[in-house]
Amino acid sequence: MFDDLRSYLSYLEGQGQLRRVKEEVEVKFDIAAGIRKTSDVEGPALLFENVKGFPGWRVLGGLFATRKLVALGLGVPQDQMLERYLTLEDKRIPPETVSSGPVKEIKWIGAEVDLSKLPIVTHASKDCGPYVTIGVQVGKDPETHIRNLSIHRMLVLGKDKLSLWAPADHHLGRMILKAEEKNRGLEVATAIGVEPALVIGSQAKVPYGIDEYHVAGGLRGAAVKLIRCETIDVEVPAFAEIVIEGVTIPGERVADGPYGEYPGCYSEAKQAPVLKVTAITMRKNPIYQTALTGMPVTENHTLIEYGNAAVVYREVKKIVPEVRAVNMTPGGTFRHHVVVSIKKRAENEGRNVILALLAMGIGLKQVIVVDHDIDPFDPMQVDWAMATRFQADKDAIIVPRIACSTLDPSCPENRVTAGLGIDATAPMKERWRFEKVEIPGVDKVKYL
Ligand SMILES: Cc1cc2nc3c(=O)[nH]c(=O)nc-3n(C[C@H](O)[C@H](O)[C@H](O)COP(=O)(O)O)c2cc1C
């Protein structure tokens, strides 16, 4: 458990997983280029200490660039991540409210707000401008006042205005629409530079109406310390580096994009809600954090993996109690493709798993089910299962017109996709025909 981002960075540095970058960098492209490279070479995280035009600021990038960095953030061995995540996600520790905290060291209220003073990064070559990409947004349901945590990109529109790409199929987008029904804006706080469990907790796929501060508390093993915002009725982590407070403008939408998105392609301009910024508070010598999105794997992928894998694992367990493993594949953006390995004990269990997962509405469009003797993380073994245990005319399932991500460029219409299921499990009868050939004594061969 880490008290704040700074203590986590010290820990990472001790582990050789943080590099301080002394070379001067520009906020336009340079920082993103560093994050791209570190994502491709398996880390470390980068702390840019010399950002042109922003003296006194440091910019952190690639904090979750690799799966190893996500595991370090939770203090869990990488090979035990799903198992441990499943337990921690269920733990739920409520937050505590405190009356003071470092995030209040500097306050810009009302007319003092000026987003151009923050080192907000432009990432990809065709992005339409600088985006805040890894702030944890806190919103409250307008009726129940239950909080939600999530991450949504925000395009800088001016000194005190941001877009907020929170579509209706996400909980924050739903809250914005609920507030608009009452002709009101939604108060939203964005906490930038928080300790890792909070960021990871914001990606939990828990049902609407569960306060993800409780989930983050469970993940970190202690209550998150919260403090009230200055201008809105929202609570934020007291140890955040920066908090942007704001209210959405009812009914107002702005073109947001193009932007290099998680499928690895540019999303066209979308109509996004607009946030009027009412205050910015921060620590002294603040660390601004940015995250890269784009071709997998980036932190927009690694951070999503376990929330998705957990919800898939739980769903499969309802059908087949013996689940060996779930692999949300990197090429499938950790969102759209999954390989599930099950111990099948009755015919057609694989088909039930396929239909259940495609129906979940979390964006899955390809489900491959294999037997428990196949490692779903090994592409060669999965391919072998398809070569020897799968017949396309009877074992493939195509489900037309299911809901999917708004950002998949292959979709014929917004949020409409076809789902593909591949049941590559062997039939129950005549199992011997599908048994792997094994040679006795391979483990005793010492000369190789
Ligand atoms: C770095 C990063 C950036 C993200 N950007 C967006 C975004 O701009 N819009 C969006 O809808 N989801 C984005 N997401 C995904 C959501 O934060 C995620 O699906 C979250 O679980 C949604 O919360 P909800 O379940 O409360 O709707 C991003 C995730 C990460 C890790």
- Mean pLDDT over all positions: 97
CATH architectural label of the domain at 300-433: 3-Layer(aba) Sandwich
Number of strands: 23
Number of helices, where a helix is a run of at least 4 consecutive DSSP H or I residues: 11
Tell me the CATH topology of the domain at 300-433: UbiD C-terminal domain-like
Spatial gap, N to C terminus: 44 Å
- Classify the oligomer: single chain
Low-confidence stretches: none
Rg, Cα atoms, Å:
23 Å
Ligand names: flavin mononucleotide
Folded structure, characterized:
By secondary structure, the chain is an alpha+beta fold. It has a domain at 300-433: 3-Layer(aba) Sandwich (UbiD C-terminal domain-like), CATH 3.40.1670. Helices cover 25% and strands 27% of the residues. Strands 5, 6, 7, 8, 9, 10, 11, 14 and 17 form a nine-stranded antiparallel β-sheet that branches. The model has no long low-confidence stretch (mean pLDDT 97). The structure holds flavin mononucleotide. Flavin mononucleotide binds at residues 133-134, 148, 150-153, 165-167, 170-171, 203, 205, 291, 299-300, 303-304.
